[in-house]
Amino acid sequence: MVAECPTPVDEPEVIKNILKTAPNVLQDFEQTLRLKNQSELQQLHEVLEVAETDIEWAVGTVNSRVAVEAIKSGKGFDPSLPTDQRLLNRITQFIMTKINGPLYLSLVREFAGEDSVQGTTINMDPVEESEAFSLWMIHDIKLPGESQRLIDSFAKAEMSKLPPDEQSLLKAHQADRPSIYKVVKMERDPETQGKKDTYLVQDLLSPDYVIRIRDKFTSKSLSEGAVFMGRVIPIDSSNDSLFNVMGSINEYHLKLWSILSGSMDKWYKKFFKMNPNSTTQDFFRIHHARMRREIRDIVSAHSRP
C-alpha cells in the first residue's frame, strides 16, 4: 500500500511524515516479529493497530486527492482503467454536483456519530468504515429534496451515455442487497470445476430468502454459521441466481449479534407497523446507520473494564 501510494503534494505535513517514515516503521515491526518474544509481541500488537490506522489514513487521503484530480482532468475515465474504477469515478463526479461540504459533514455525523466530526476534520476508520459510508451514501439514503437514491439519480442522468460494460455494472449496482446474512453452507462451484468457492447465505431479515455468493476472498475467511453485515450485487444484472460481495463485510461475534438483534426486532416491528407495504431492503437502508451506531455502542460498553 505504501509503495504504490502517489507522492504527497499539498497534504498536511503529518501525512507526508507518516508516509516518509512508514517503510522504516514496518521494517522494525518485521524484525520484532522474527524475535518471537511474547511480551514484546503483545506490545507490538497494540502499537501496530495505531500505526496501521495512521498509514491507511495517510494513503487514503493521498489517493483521494489523486482520484479527484484525475476525475477533474478527465483521466479518471480512461478506457484502460478497470470497469469498476471508471464507473466509481463517474459516480464520484456526480456526487460532487449533489453534496456540498456542510451536507457531507452532516451525513458523516449521521452515519458514524457526532464525535466523528471535529470542526472540518473527519474521524473514521480510513478503510472499512469510510468504504461503508460511501456505499451507504450512494446506495441507501435519499438526499434532502431528492426522491430517489444517488445511484438511481445517476443512472437516470447518465446510463445512456455509458459504455456497455459500465451500463451492465451500474444495473447490478442498482440491484444491490444490503442485509444481515448468515452462512448456511460452504461449497465448491461446479461451474468452474472448484476453482472459485461459493457459499449459501440466509438473509436474516427475510429468513426464507437464501442466495448463493461467489467470492474467493470472503469464502476463505468465513465459515458456516458466520453472521455478517454485507452488500451483495448480482454477478449478472439480468439474473439474480448468483451474487458477489460489494465492498467489505463485517462479521459479528454471535454474542454481539444476539444483543443487536434484540434492538432490531423492536425497530423492525415499529417500521412495518408504520410502513406495511415496505420491503426488508427498505428497512435495512433506513436503519443502516442506526445499526452501525448501535454496534459501536455495544462494543464500547463491553470493552469497558
Give the helix proportion (percent range).
55-70%
Uncertain runs are none
Output the CATH class name of the largest domain.
Mainly Beta
How many domains? The number is 3
Biggest sheet descriptor: 6 strands, antiparallel
Mean pLDDT: 85
Q: Which of globular, elongated, flat, extended, rod-shaped describes the shape? A: globular
Structural class: alpha+beta
Instruction: Determine the number of helices (DSSP H or I, runs of at least 4 residues).
Output: 10
- Report the end-to-end length measured between terminal Cα atoms: 35 Å
Number of strands: 8
Task: Calculate Rg over CA atoms.
Answer: 21 Å
Percentage of β-strand residues: 15-25%
- CATH topology description of the largest domain: OB fold (Dihydrolipoamide Acetyltransferase, E2P)
Reported CATH architecture of the largest domain: Beta Barrel
Order of SSEs, N→C? HHHHEEHHHEEEHEEEHH
Short description:
By secondary structure, the chain is α+β, with helices and mostly antiparallel strands. It has helices at residues 13-35, 38-73, 83-96, 101-112, 128-139, 150-158, 164-174, 216-221, 254-274, 280-303, and strands spanning 117-118, 121-122, 177-188, 197-203, 210-214, 227-236, 239-245, 250-252.
